[in-house]
Amino acid sequence: MAESILEVKDLRTYFYTEAGVVKAVNGVNFRLEKGQSLGVVGESGSGKSITALSIMGLIKPPGRVISGEIRLQGQDLLKKSRKELEKIRGNDIAMIFQDPMTSLNPVLRVGEQIAEAVVLHRKVNRKEGWNVALEMLKKVGIPEAEDRIRRFPHEMSGGMRQRVMIAIALSCNPKVLIADEPTTALDVTIQAQILDLIRLLQKDFETATIMITHDLGVVAEVCRNVMVMYAGQPVEYSDVTTVLEQPKHPYTWGLLSSLPKLNASGKQRLTPIDGMPPDLGNLPEGCAFAPRCPHKKPVCERQEPSGKWLSPGHFVRCHLYEA
Amino acid sequence: MLSYLIRRTFWMIVTLFFIVLIAFVINFVVPGNPARTIAGPKASPEVIKAIEEKYDLNKPVPVQFEHYFVNLLHGDLGISYRTNESVNSELRTAFPKTMYLGFSVFFLNVLIGVPTGIYAAIKRSKFMDHVILISSLVGTSAPTFWIGYILLFVVGYKLSLLPIGGYGGISHVILPAFTVSLASAAGYVRVVRTSMLEVLGTDYVRTAEAKGLSQSTVILKHAFRSSVIPLITYAGMDLGTLMGGLIVTEGIFGWPGIGQMAVTAINYQDMPTIMGVVLVAAVAVVIANFVVDIIYALVDPRISY
User: Fold this and answer.
1) What is the band of B117 on the pLDDT scale with cuts at 50, 70, 90?
2) Closest CA to B181 of B104, B101, B109
């Protein structure tokens, strides 16, 4: 097995709200190898983004990481002090956010927003920081970078701003890049460009990538492995071909059949998954997916499935495969 | 930008014209005869008539306004009915003193209000946030004359730490400035706290945190800088108001600014002096607003004229 960069074990992040405890992330496990790309897929509220923010150490009260391990090259990030985490954030682990229109500071020049991370982590002076920023803008394919570097975010389009976000994230050559729905807020044509860019840079920088998305198409294009999440837990994990072609979990089946297919004949209807995602503050007993599952057995509503490795590299959490 | 400045200046002049007009007319709405006030209660009708003659008080209001306005355009604010001195020279003495006190208050407001507001926003809903909010409520609610006399009595009289009144250097300005600032800094706290809370929840602050920037850099460089617009608006209004004179505080501490000048002038129906003070106060507010609009464009690149 290749060297593992990031290892998450039994991560649980709960939010202690007045209405009760919301179990947003409820036992997530995965391993990320050097240069590998992992897609995290699930509906809204399945805990994808909270998993990412937990790794970044950016969970704010009333939220709290209550247990688990997040090991970056063997070191548990959950045991680090705030100061130590500041050295890792943006340096070893970087993140791209969903909405480029709101993720850049409106009153700072884009050059400054890239350079400040470089100045901070590389211990260089401001001028060198700006030089790196210029280089990064060119790498992410921004035309007339010498001019754009002095611009403010509102003078750029959404696609350009997302390129700037990518430039910020990669400016310190992180070991892990977390992209939280990086193309969701963009036009379809721009989406493809940004995905191409991420894929290209991922190879270039040998950065391990976690791609959070609800779009299986994105996963198919960019990722090698996929983790399907439901109600704060991974329900299926495997390489991308297996998940797309031989999915085992009923939820994955549901996700796949709710995708439109280009080659489908005529007016074939999409099959949505019935029902709504469960209330994370009040999870059902047994399997969280059971109320919506077309294949549920009596046991599903009584007992939580513990999960099973069907083959090395293919994990499923479902009673259909437990005996 | 240039056309904006020209348009803006034009409207400033229009605004000031109407302020002068309205203030002038109000003088004639209030009952009483200025000539009698000037002459004293025992003056004979002849004397009063002579005074009316001298100050044009027997002419119709539009004619009087025309006289006043033409003089104003020549920079002449007239002669005080009470002291017989030119209002220009009286304002030249009093206004710098008001500016001195006003800027001291403004300085304290910013110095106390802004950091406290930022701190309260960081400690949102925690103990210290509540302490700050409650004390700022108490500060705003306590009447100025009460705070002023308490400070005067305790610090000036009992402890003899500072002079108990009058105009002078730093030691004289501390008590009156604190008296006003204890109440008005509270407004800054609330403005800064609210706008900071709004910005602290934004995506770009999270981006800044994700870069690994320290908390102080995130707060000051990223959050505070983009949250200053409401603060600038508020500070501009505050400064404009302060330049109009602090009537109660100047009274308590015997500070010879335009606030006191206004009070005396109103008591004597000294119209030229009243008009002079109103005009200075109005110009201060109008200029403060103008400067605020210019500063907007300087601090926020999204705003351009």
Assistant:
1) very high
2) B109
Whether pTM > 0.80 for this model: the answer is yes
Our count of domains for chain A comes to 1
Amino acid type, B25: V
CB-side neighbour CA atoms (13 Å) of B139: 22
> Mutate which of A17, A81, A92, A105 to test chain B, going by most B C-beta atoms within 10 A?
A105
Q: Look at residue A1 and tell me whether its pLDDT is greater than 60.
A: no
Please name which of A182, A187, A213, A186 lies closest in space to residue A44, comparing C-alpha atoms.
Answer: A213
Q: Give the residue from A67, A58, A3 showing the smallest Cα distance to A29.
A: A67
Q: Using DSSP, state whether A283 is helix, strand or coil.
A: coil
Mutating which of B207, B300, B304 best tests the A interface, going by the most A Cβ atoms within 10 A? B207
Backbone Cα Rg of chain A: 20
Query: Across the interface, which of B210, B214, B222 has its CB nearest the CB of A95?
Result: B210
Confidence of residue A70 (pLDDT cuts 50, 70, 90): very high
Question: Does a structural domain hold residue A140?
Answer: no
Q: A64 is in which domain, residue-wise?
A: 4-92+174-262+269-321
By the 8 A CB rule, do A178 and A210 touch? yes
In Å, the largest CA–CA distance within chain A is 66
Cis peptide before A62 (omega within 30 of 0): yes
A265 has pLDDT over 70:
no
Condensed to tens digits (0 to 9), the pLDDT of residues A238-256 reads 999 998 888 899 999 888 8
Whether B297 has its CB under 8 Å from any CB of chain A: the answer is: no
Per residue in A90-113, pLDDT tens?
A: 999 999 998 889 999 999 999 999
Which bin fits B217, alpha (ψ -120 to 50), beta or left (φ > 0)?
Answer: alpha
Enumerate the β-bridge partners of residue A65. A13
The structure tokens 């990518």 sit at A166
Rounded (to 5) percent helix, strand, coil in chain B? 75, 0, 20
Strands A4-17 and A176-180: unpaired
Query: Is A293 contained in some domain?
Result: yes
- pLDDT score of A322: 78
What pLDDT does residue A264 have? 60
On the question of pLDDT at A263 being above 70, the answer is no
CB-based contact B276:B86 (threshold 8 Å) = no
Give the HSE-up count for residue A300: Cα atoms under 13 Å, Cβ half-sphere: 17
Helix, strand or coil for residue A236?
strand
> Is A51 a domain residue?
yes
Q: Are A227 and A29 in contact (CB under 8 A)?
A: no
Q: Do B213 and A103 touch (CB under 8 A)?
A: no
Q: Residue A17: give its domain's CATH number.
A: 3.40.50.300
Judged by CB atoms within 8 Å, which residues 121-180 of B form the interface with A? none
* A249 domain residue, yes or no: yes
Provide, rounded to the nearest whole percent, the portion of chain A with pLDDT above 70.
Answer: 97
Please give the backbone phi and psi of residue A284, each rounded to the nearest 5 degrees, phi first. Answer: -70, 155
Residue B132: CB atoms within 10 Å: 20
Q: What is the pLDDT of residues A187-233, one digit of tens each?
A: 888 888 888 888 888 888 888 999 999 888 888 888 999 999 999 99
User: In which residue are the tokens 């602090």 written?
Assistant: B246
Here the tokens at position A173 are 């050559």
Crossing angle of the two packed helices A126-139 and A110-122, in degrees rounded to 10: 120
